[in-house]
Each structure stands twice: as C-alpha cells, then as structure tokens.
Amino acid sequence: MKRWMFCLAFVTTALLAQAQTIKTRTEANVDLTRYETFTVLKGESVTPKDQKRASDQALFDAVKNGVRRELEDRGYKFVDDSTAQMHVSYVAGAFDFTDAGNVGPLGQTPASDPSELNQSRSWSKTSREGMLVIDIADGATKKALWKAETENLSLDRADLARVLDGAIYKAFKKFPSRVEGKKKKKKK
Which residues of the chain have pLDDT under 50? Predict the structure, then answer.
C-alpha cells in the first residue's frame, strides 16, 4: 500500500512539474556580465481585482526577494535607487479557469429504478493558474537586455511566495554569473 502511495505521489509531482513552462531570451549582442548593479522596480499585477488573494505589495516583495537572491548569488550588486545599471521589472497575474464537460452515456450501469434516470453526467473543475514575466533593461538606455516568461504556474492551494521563488529560480538558472570559477549554489 505504501509503495502505491509513493508511486502515485511521485507521478503526480512529475506531472505538475512538467506543466510549468519557462522561456528565457537574451537580446542579441548583449553581454550581461559587464553590468554590476541592479534594482527591482515595482511591476504590474494583471490579476482581476475580485480574484486577488495577495496584495500588490506582497507580490512585489516576493518577486524582489527572489530576483535579488538569484542575482546576488551570481555576483551582481543590489542598489535601491536609480543609479543601478540594470532595471528589473515584472508583470504577474493569476486567473481562475473552469473546465467543464459531459461524461456521456458510455460505461454507465443501467438504471435499476426511476430515481437514477436523471443523474447528472456533466462535470466541472476549477483551477487557478498564474503567469510571470520578468524583464531586465539597461538603466541608462532603457534597452531590453533579457526576458523570462513563465506560463502555467499552478496556484491551487499554494503559497504565493513559494511558487514565485520556484519560478524565479528556474528562470534565472541560465543567467550568466559574474563570479568566475564559482558555481551557483543549489537551492535547498
């Protein structure tokens, strides 16, 4: 029994991990390692007001902390003013999706009494998904340098900061390090 539960948990985790997609892009002819400092600007939340479960400030704090941790681990220095060479901004949102369908008549047991004739054969499932886009621009020229787009962030029964930390960690996985010969620490 324990073996089945473990296998089921492993398969479920694997399927959920595959659902999240992250695409990164560095602009042509850009050497990100020549930049030394960065700041995180307050981004935009595109979640409908009636569906928000966290404040814009909580979202900003979670993104700022995650981005700051990832870039500082790679040797970049955080400054909290406009003198930063790189400006990091974001757009984030969460939406409720409802899937519905009709099971149909196949595979059902024939009715044994009249009360079973009008049973519902339709189903619905509501889930919550999110997206996060992180942009890094040159502080002086405002030219785009790097972009990460995440889709299908599963937010059902999840802690916002934890989900964002995971997405930011994966987005910055291939971001260049300024520290020569030093490998990025693995996330625990």
Answer: 10-11, 14-18, 182, 184-185, 187-188
10 Å CB burial of residue 168 (0-12, 13-18, 19+) is buried
Q: How many CB atoms neighbour CB 80 within 10 A?
A: 10
Q: Where do the DSSP E strands lie in the chain?
A: 21-26, 37-40, 44-45, 77-78, 86-102, 122-138, 144-154
Torsion, Cα of 138, 25, 21, 172 (10° steps): -50
Contact 167, 20 (CB under 8 A): yes
Q: Terminus-to-terminus CA distance in the chain, angstroms?
A: 29
Contact 148, 134 (CB under 8 A): yes
Instruction: For CA atoms 58, 64, 67, 72, give the dihedral sign.
Output: negative
